[in-house]
Structures are given as C-alpha cells and as structure tokens.
C-alpha cells in the first residue's frame, strides 16, 4: 500500500512522472523509427505517469487501485519482454504463461479479495520480470552482431532489471520482518522510487540510441 506524507513524497513522484514523459517526448522529437518494442515502451511510460498521478495525488492510499495498477504494469512489462525474445517458440511459451498467470491471479483476487497476499504477489511479479530481464540481457549480450550501447533492447532490459530487481530486494527484506514501522515502510518506498527514477533515465538512453526514421526526399 502506498504511504504518503512529507514533502519527499510529493517531490519524488513528481520527478518520476516528469521523467516518464521524457522517453515519450524523445521518441516524438527524434522521429525514431517505429518498432513494436518502442511502441510498448511508450505505452508503459505513459502508464507509469498515470499510475503515479493516481496513486500519489488523485487517489492516494487505495489498496485496490494500487494492486490493480501493479498487475497492469506487470502485464505491459511482460509483453515488452516477449517482444524482445527472438525465438518464436519462446514467445508462444510466454503467451501461455501470461494467460495462465493472469488467470490464477484474477481467480485468487476474486475468491480472496483484491488485497490477498499483497507482499507475496508483489515479490512473485517482480521476481518473474527480473528473471526475464536477465534472460533478455543474456540473449542480447550473446549476439555478436550488435553493438550493445546502440541496442535499445539492452537499455530497456537493463532499466527494467534495475527497477524490478530493487523491488524484489526491498520486498524480500520487508517480507522477513514483521511489524515494520511506518518510517521503515516509507524509506522502502523512497528507495523504490529512486530505482524508478533510474529506470526512466535508462529508458531515455534507450530511445536516444534508437535509429531514426529514414528521410523521404520525394516531393
């Protein structure tokens, strides 16, 4: 659940919101060549903007809304990773896994309530995405025909690993400690928001290295 209070919980969400729009603006200004990965990345950044706007300013402290947003974010990021997997069989496996996972989660929420196992659900979702980030990075690094610093998928996967890896780390620490004080919970949220800031900065690098659209000189 999102904890609010203090100027830092106004400043940091604002920073993340502004940074989440930067990759979108960069794609537009640079006239980057259209690709499925960058299109989904654009949607993800816009969703992150709306997510922070809703959870921290419009409807703060809503457990149901927070859980729903995180599930939508998981779906978007999972689909983004699927686009970065070159194997057709791998994509099929990921499609089946996503459908099965969402079915199980929605069933649990229907039977137990939207706040069923919140800590476990957060860790499981973040752990799955962290594992996929490692897989994608391994595949990109193993490809000797590309220059890593010029490959958007490398930066996108790196940004997602930075964020969801930190989520797993922080939630795992909190999960082993009962009765955490509000101050510690707030500190955990601050660290995760800093990780989100890093994610958006790396996304900006990803769209900055993407190839531009070819110029059409025809009149």
TrEMBL record:
Q: Which domain of life is it from?
A: Bacteria
Give the transmembrane region(s): 6-29, 36-58, 64-81, 93-111, 117-141, 153-177, 189-210
Q: Which UniProt keywords apply?
A: Membrane, Transmembrane, Transmembrane helix
Q: Give the protein's recorded name.
A: Uncharacterized protein
Please name the source species: Niastella caeni
- Organism phylogeny: Bacteria, Pseudomonadati, Bacteroidota, Chitinophagia, Chitinophagales
